Amino acid sequence: MPYERGMNEEVLPVMRSKSGGWLHYLANPARFMRVAVPALPWLTVVSVLLCAVGIVWGYQFAPADWEQGDAARIMYVHVPAAWVAMAGYAALAVCSLFSIVWRHPLADIAAEEIGPVGAGFTAVCLVSGSLWGKPMWGAYWVWDARLTSVLILFFLYLGHVALIRAFDNKAHAYRAAAILALAGAVNLPIIVFSVQWWNTLHQGNTISLSGGSKIYVTMLYPLLISTLGFYLAFITMVVARVAAAINERKLAAALLAAALHAAEEERT
Amino acid sequence: MRTPKKRRLYLVLLGSLCFGAAVALTLAAFSSTLTYFLSPRQVEAQSPPVGQSFRLGGIVEAGSVHTTVAGETPTTHFDITDGRAAVPVSFTGVLPDLFREGQGVVAIGAMAPDRTFAADEVLAKHGAAYMPKDVEEELRKSGKWNPKYGPPPSAASWNDLPVKAGS
User: Fold this and answer.
1) How many domains does chain A have?
2) What is the pLDDT of residues B92-117, one digit of tens each?
3) 3-state secondary structure at position A213
4) Cβ contacts of residue A111 below 8 Å, gap of 6+?
5) Which of A80, A106, B107, B126 fits A227 for a cystine, CB–CB 3.0-4.6 Å?
6) B123 to chain A: which residues are within 8 Å by CB?
7) Please, which residues 35-74 of chain B have a Cβ atom closer than 8 Å to chain A?
8) At A256, which helix (H) or strand (E)?
9) Do A63 and B5 lie within an 8 Å CB cutoff?
10) A220/B132 Cβ within 8 A
């Protein structure tokens, strides 16, 4: 359903201060609703299609690995989930920066809504990796640098989810959670480089942007499609949650206004 | 002019910088304990005392694997190498599926009095290369790679190699 502006909800005048005027323009909740809500059904259809094509291709038609056999197929879920978990945290950190420095209402809401989705993708990554680890490594879990840093990422997400909902005063909640998210961002380069800085049981990078990827083409294509699908699914979920949160706030504001109005009438 | 926004931005940047530096220094200080395993070269240099538990990682040396079966349980002797040094390892029990000559492994255990490594547990470390069976056979037949002697050659030489239909 397309979002329509009500009669009595004018777009707030855009503050055009010298620094970051365009940021204010982009981060206006009403504008977000006008763009995002009509896009949601499309995003949903495309992300579901891409995930389905990538995973069915990977699990049914891509060749098995010469050494791991069919167990290697876990990568069509595990690897995209891991990438999205990290990109999601980067997005959370960026929102937190906007939230703490420029006090953007949309960045506050986005930070609140990214947390649970990112935690979900991180959980998928951890569980799928663990199920692969038992038959391949011989252990569900080892405390090497890669696995441990991703577990910390999961706890950072959970901590953020809990902290941002732990205050009665929302402004305090957003500030405290933003500090946690920004401090936790130091974990991202640790995850990425853990397999290079330290000896880990987890293998090194297969896909490299700067050189040849150590993966056969017919295994690479479904992996890339599945990755695109996971990214879009993440974006879809976050946009839907942010739209719902904005509607919730509007509803609460309207109810409050109605209650105040009623009280006013009663008095006169 | 110093607006509150700018002040907050500088505060965040300064805070991130300090925190990042603190974490980097901590990681650098704990670098050796963050390492999941020691390589044979490190074992040779540090010579860990007999009985002290640690993890040893490297490649299973080609031609070094010997298995003897006493009753029901197999005991396997093999060397773990990193190309420069090698440590003899003995392990009693069932090895993971991916264990083979040329495979990266991590063994958990301690040095025995005879300076061999007595492993309680052996984990297989999988390499980063993914290829179908046909490609592996192709490389092996053409003599470009034998999995017994370590990781595969540069990926550009095989990651779009034409193979039989159906793979």
Assistant:
1) 1
2) 888 888 888 888 899 999 999 888 89
3) coil
4) A92, A95, A96, A99, A160, A164, A174, A177, A178, A181
5) A80
6) 137-139, 142, 201
7) 35-39, 57
8) helix A217-267
9) no
10) no
